């Protein structure tokens, strides 16, 4: 902790204009780099993330509206089914003597099919909402990961000099050669 405070205290002692040197205090340079990267990510990523979330919100709201329209259609179908039911009940009173059990069976089938249709529409609405929420969540995660990866690569590329880059490539080629010899 003393090194960190010393690095901030030593900021007041800049070298003269004619000299050039490297800052070897890794804690101070990492704090500066991290603060710059975080500032850039927050500044540029906030707008993209809010746009993504707004778009997803609109899509989800549209899906909910569509589901509500489907629900209203199902309610209309239910009303029509109830009207048919009333009609069937009137006919049942007229033909009760001739076939009460058959008419009752028809009535139950009509009610069951209407409830099944309503259940299917409700399930479809719920599945659609869940699917859209998961899709939105996955897209946001993917976008945040992509931005973080781009930021990390940018930071890594800016920190590598030519000699370190060549040594890294040579080491990786050596590792790949050793792996090829093992597999052969």
From TrEMBL:
Its main location: membrane. Keywords: ATP synthesis, CF(0), Chloroplast, Coiled coil, Hydrogen ion transport, Ion transport, Membrane, Plastid, Thylakoid, Transmembrane, Transmembrane helix, Transport. GO terms for molecular function: proton-transporting ATP synthase activity, rotational mechanism. It is a single-pass membrane protein. It is found in: Membrane; Plastid, Chloroplast thylakoid membrane. F-type ATPases have 2 components, F(1) - the catalytic core - and F(0) - the membrane proton channel. F(1) has five subunits: alpha(3), beta(3), gamma(1), delta(1), epsilon(1). F(0) has four main subunits: a(1), b(1), b'(1) and c(10-14). The alpha and beta chains form an alternating ring which encloses part of the gamma chain. F(1) is attached to F(0) by a central stalk formed by the gamma and epsilon chains, while a peripheral stalk is formed by the delta, b and b' chains. F(1)F(0) ATP synthase produces ATP from ADP in the presence of a proton or sodium gradient. F-type ATPases consist of two structural domains, F(1) containing the extramembraneous catalytic core and F(0) containing the membrane proton channel, linked together by a central stalk and a peripheral stalk. During catalysis, ATP synthesis in the catalytic domain of F(1) is coupled via a rotary mechanism of the central stalk subunits to proton translocation. Component of the F(0) channel, it forms part of the peripheral stalk, linking F(1) to F(0). In plastids the F-type ATPase is also known as CF(1)CF(0). This is ATP synthase subunit b, chloroplastic. It comes from Nannoglottis ravida. The lineage of its organism: Eukaryota, Viridiplantae, Streptophyta, Embryophyta, Tracheophyta.
């Amino acid at each position: 902790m003393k090194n960190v405070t010393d690095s901030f205290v030593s900021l007041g002692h800049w070298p003269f204009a004619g000299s050039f040197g490297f800052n070897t205090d890794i804690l101070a340079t990492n704090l500066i780099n991290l603060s710059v990267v975080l500032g850039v990510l927050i500044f540029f990523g906030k707008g993209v993330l809010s746009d993504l979330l707004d778009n997803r919100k609109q899509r989800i709201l549209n899906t909910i509206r569509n589901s509500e329209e489907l629900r209203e259609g199902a309610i209309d179908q239910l009303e029509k089914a109830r009207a048919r039911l009333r009609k069937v009940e009137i006919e049942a009173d007229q033909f009760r003597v001739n076939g009460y059990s058959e008419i009752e069976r028809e009535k139950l089938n009509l009610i069951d099919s209407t409830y099944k249709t309503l259940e299917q529409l409700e399930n479809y609405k719920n599945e659609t909402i869940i699917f859209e929420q998961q899709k939105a969540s996955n897209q946001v995660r993917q976008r945040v990961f992509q931005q973080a990866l781009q930021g990390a690569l940018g930071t890594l590329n800016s920190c590598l000099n030519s000699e370190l880059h060549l040594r890294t490539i040579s080491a990786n080629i050596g590792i790949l050669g050793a792996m090829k010899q093992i597999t052969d």
